[in-house]
User: What shape does this take?
Amino acid sequence: MKTCIFFGHRDCPDTIRPKLKNTIELLISENGFNVFLVGNHGNFDRIVREVLKELETTYNIHYEIILNTLPNPKKLDYTEYDTAHYTLPENLELTPPKYSIDFRNKYMINRAQYVISYITHNFGTGAAKYVQLAKKKDIPVINLTDE
Assistant: This one.
């Protein structure tokens, strides 16, 4: 199984959707990727989830929404996606809430062979930090903001 993960800014524009879909389809058809891991924060993650849900009807792929906290049943939108796609990283419950996103993102990096990102700046403690970490581990990264 080849696994691709996603990191991007939470204010990602919806206009990225066609480029994202084309990139994922190329990974599937030309490189044999069939497992996709995505978070659940911000607009980039939402767009990725929607594209993966759509592609799942055409391709033999599996995607997981990697949570950083136990889900609150009162806040889950069951119409957005099948809750069967939710995954909690092992030992997440041992992680202080302050570090849960970091734990989740490192969990995804440790399972990845490829990263698709939407990064407009290479600084900060958000998506850019984890893209840099993936690069340090020699995981190929494509940034959808690159021309």
Observations:
- Strands lie at 2-8, 33-38, 62-66, 86-87, 114-118, 141-143.
- The chain has one domain: 2-143.
- The helical segments are 17-31, 42-55, 100-111, 127-136.
- The longest strand covers residues 2-8.
